[in-house]
Structure formats: structure tokens, C-alpha cells
Amino acid sequence: MERKISSKTIRRCLCIGAILFGGAASITSVMAEEYFNVVDGELQRPTGYREWVYVGTPVTPNDMNNGKAAFPEHHNVYIDPTSWSHWKKTGEFRDGTIIIKELVAVGSKAAVSGAGYFQGDFIGLEATIKSTSINPNEPGNWSYYSFSTPDHKSLTDTAKAFPAAACNACHAAAAADDFVFTQYYPVLRAGKGAGTLATGGHSSMLK
Ligand code: HEC
């Protein structure tokens, strides 16, 4: 027997659909807002950042720093995708930015391509966040965190912010853009306020 679907049933379905869809959309927009979580003054270790936007890899190898670089050795740096969009549009870091620096050891110094510094194991994780609500009194509203253990063999689950003198002071003195060392991140340099051009390959010029 054929089952009749009344227009009333369809209206009800559309209505439920709208509620579900509307709810999902608002959850997504809340989640897209910030990619970090601070509980009782401690930043919870962020996850998923290797799927954010990669901006560059400074390297301070131990063998060029008396055997013990402050942040050994490669630093793979990522910014959250919403803050990247904002950077492309405005050339500024939004309130709510998080930048991750994942430390990777020098694994090998020779490859078939030549002598060099090649990435080995992961050995640490640092982060900085810009938030007017969490850091109302910090310079530029940035705070700095380390999840690296002293032996560089594991990561902590949470981290307390360092005092401004320990981290921020050096960033304030030498970083090119709002406490961030954009001079060492070619992706951020090329992307600053550049809109679509920030995404690469749109010009025959190398920039
Ligand atoms: C003596 C100067 C100096 C001090 C002190 C310092 N940094 Fe940095 N930091 C740098 C430089 C230079 C870079 C970029 C190049 C690099 O990674 O080597 C950087 C980059 C970073 C980045 C990537 C985002 C950015 O702003 O460029 C994070 C995260 C970071 N540092 C965390 C920390 C933390 C946490 C501390 C305190 C424990 C700290 N830094 C102390 C010089 C410093």
C-alpha cells in the first residue's frame, strides 16, 4: 500500500532539518573562533595543528649553538586557519590567534642531495596565543607556553604562561610584526594583506 506523505509531514521535516542545521552551523562557528583552550590559567595542549597553515621552519642546530640551542633544532611553525584568513585579509594578527612551534631534531647531516640539516624526531612543542580576554595586561596581549619536557622525550598536557620577561621581552625587541618573527616565515611575509595572492602560484614572480 502506498504511503501518503502529507504536506504537514514535509513541513515538520523541514522544520526539524532547519533546527538541526541551524544548531550545527552555530556550533561550527563557535569552534572556528578559537583553536585553544585555557583552563585555570593553563593552556591545554593543542592538537591537530599539523593540519593548520604552515608558515616556515627556522633552524637553530645544536652544533652551531655550543651544543645546546635554546630551542633545538628545527622549528616548524603553524598558525590556526581562521587567523591565517584574517592575516591574508588585513595583515594583522586577530584577537584569538594561536601560533605553534613544533621542535624537530636534526636527524641526519647528509643525504643524496648533499650535506645539510635534515629533520629527525619530534622533540618539543611551544605556543603563543594573542587574547585580550586572557592576557589583558601582557604586551600585545600575547602569552607564551612550552609543553616540552626537559629531556625532550615527551610533552606535558597543559602549560602555564611564562612571565613576560622570559619570552615576550625578546619577541618585543626583535620580532618584525606584532611580537611575531614574520621576518623568518616566508609564508606570512608573502601573505600579509595579500588576499588570494597569499596562497601561492598566482604570479610568475617568486614571492
Ligand atoms: C632571545 C630571544 C627569544 C626568547 C627569549 C624567546 N624567543 Fe621565541 N622566538 C625567537 C625567535 C628569533 C623566533 C623565530 C625564529 C626561531 O624560531 O628561531 C621565535 C619564535 C617563537 C615562536 C613562534 C611564533 C613567533 O612569535 O615567531 C614561539 C611560539 C615562541 N618563539 C615561543 C617562545 C617561548 C615559549 C619563549 C619563552 C620560554 C620564547 N619564545 C623566548 C626568539 C626568542
UniProtKB/TrEMBL annotation:
Pfam families: Cytochrome_P460. Residues 46-182 form the Cytochrome P460 domain. CDD domains: cyt_P460_Ne-like (cd20751). It comes from the Bacteria. Keywords: Signal. Gene3D superfamilies: Cytochrome P460. InterPro entries: Cytochrome_P460, Cytochrome_P460_sp. Residues 1-32 form the signal peptide. This is Cytochrome P460 family protein. It comes from Enterovibrio gelatinilyticus.
